[in-house]
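hey so u asked for the seq, here:
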Amino acid sequence: MAMNIMFTSHCNQSCPYCFAKSVLVVPGRKRQKEEISAENLRFILDFIRTSGGNQINIIGGEPTLHSEFKRRYDEIDSRGFFAMIFSNGVMEQDTAVYLGGRKSLTSMILNIREPQEYTRSDWDKIIFALKHIKNTVLSFRIYRLGFSIDFIFDLIKEFKLIPFVNLAPALPCLNVESKYLPLSHYQEMGAKLARLSMKSRKFAISWYSDSGFILCGFSKKNLKELKRNVNFVPNVNCSSAVEVKPNLDVQRCFGMWGKRNEHPISLREFVGVKQIHNYFDRRSLMIKHRYGALDECRKCSDFARQICGGGCLVHIFKKHPDLYHGKIFS
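ran it, structure tokens below
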């Protein structure tokens, strides 16, 4: 079990599908940015080690925008921890070179959009990062049906990146409007992914997903093709992600930040990572096992047997507002 640690709330991109805008400082938005302090990072590292772990997942915003990013990472390095960084890749050249030389960096998960969605300057920064950080896994969020991932295959081949792609649908946020694919379009998305998997197989590139799918978004034929071509099994039953803000407030996942009937809870109130996951899963899985995001979930045997979680929890809250407003969930 892991936790995602927010180094900074500052981000230099404004992705149309971002479900974390309620806590981020993005271009065009004026608010005070938050950065993790040396003291709070040391507390987190001690907390993880006491829990029996030695891995830290670093998120933002864009984590490399922390004003003392290298000093914070050096602390992780010196304590013998391994790190996974979730980045948008738009970083300064000296930072990319620095990360490329860190043996403790197990991988950089680079959330990437299609090239035409970037400025030339930002795309050049991403290319520079890919040249220097070879243990990069490209991650792509689907927020419209007219998407293309051919460029991902080209980047993996050109820069000899890890032949593994994280693919998942963009998900909604409770308190901020963002773009995401309606559940009614998931079957079209599933069919398109099955077609794209044949091309991915030619490049020997596998896929995985971390959240967001529903099982009825795929035909049995599609699922067989995806498994055969790219060893892809859609994640249809996600549990809590556990994300920690710089001030040590903890939440189930970004999409749930600021839920009105849930007061912030501090990492200091827990004694281990497992206890945090149990806390959020106990509060949310009860709902996911009872309610689905679609009317069809009520008569679905896969949902009844908990093979499929019935969609993202935020989708469920949007369909059942009584849950969100605390009449059932509080």
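The domain at 4-273 is CATH 3.20.20.70 (TIM Barrel). The mean pLDDT is 91.
lmk if thats what u needed
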